[in-house]
Input
Amino acid sequence: MSNEQQQRLFYELKPGIDLPGDSPGKIPSNIEVGENTVIDSSACFNNYFSTLPVGLRAGSNITLWRTSLAAEENALIEIGDYTYISNASLVCSERITIGSRVLIAGGVTIADSDFHPIAPAARLADTIALSPVGNRQHRLSVSTKPVVIEDDVWIGYNATILKGVRVGTGAIVAPGALLIKDVPPGTEVAGNPARIV
Amino acid sequence: MRKNFVQTVKKAKDGRGYIEYDWHAGGIPSNIVLGENVYIDSSYSFEPFHSERETGFYLGDASGLYSASTLMVGANGTVKVGSYTILNGTVVVCNDDVTIGNHCMLAWGSVVTDTWAGFQSAPIEKRREVLRFAATDARRRLLQVDTPRPVVLEDNVWVGFDAVILPGVTLGRGCVVGSKTIVSEDVPPYAIMVGNPSRLVRYLDADDTEEARKKAFQEYLQH
Output
């Protein structure tokens, strides 16, 4: 490995490129990216299955480090300028929108669906569809609600943001908080479920 | 598109099972009973498995251990998992009995344990004794201070990610435990339990009848 590769922490993110010396290396082509947006590894796209013309719309000067961009077939993830995401999981079935200058700390999960239906009979059917002998194609659809993180938000370690939540401009989400309701602009929330502090 | 896989576990002469293309060389211990059509990501799940019972782990038909779920089982532990159950990055800590029913889903980071370290009520000297023993033990085991209390997850239970199910708890049939919920008391059937400290939000309709189950088998199996 050359000295240059050893010292390289980030690759510039461009649609459809191959990252040299990286595994699996391939960046999907159905993404739109601004200038000077970087990613540490193509492994960020390991669970990216979006088949939309654009599944990821990222602005300029964004940093994505060890972040999982998990997108289902019809999912769109949008990220604004100067946003910095480290070691977070974005699990998107429909749409997750993150504003500009948002700072997201390690261990954060943002999901716009509950992954499984909640009614007991539907859930039972889902375990069969997902089992080794099941048929995943015919799974029941799961309700989704888009998540919106507005500009200048700061999200602390291990916080969780669940479906349908809108986090207002300038809000602070304390470490470990679990959000199930909207957060008004400029407030700080903490706890499980999260409350304004 | 992701696919569903059935796996073959080959029995070796030493009685241990070996999974094809497993990155971990440890193999599956011999005192384990696997049902038909199961899926196990890797034998790494069994790395902290020390059960000396005749059968220390049962995995029912078409169930799976995904995302390196971990089975931390002591010498006297037995873990039973039913059919069509998904353990996706779950940690099971067992020194006595942990029973998980059929059609359960346990998400990543969730913990099911029948053992506390029991340090809350023990004097400091007890903690020091445990640490002194660990320092002299080749396997660095922590001595058990508290008596384990069996945990039961009935059928069709859904445990969200990073939830913790504590010793002595029974989760009733069809209940839902939200993500990051800490459960220290029994949850009634079909209840939704969320938050920390946890609270019961509401009850679901008990629509998972035997008929619904039969219908689901007709519709969602590969034919």
User: Anything to note?
Assistant: The longest strand of chain A covers residues 68-71.
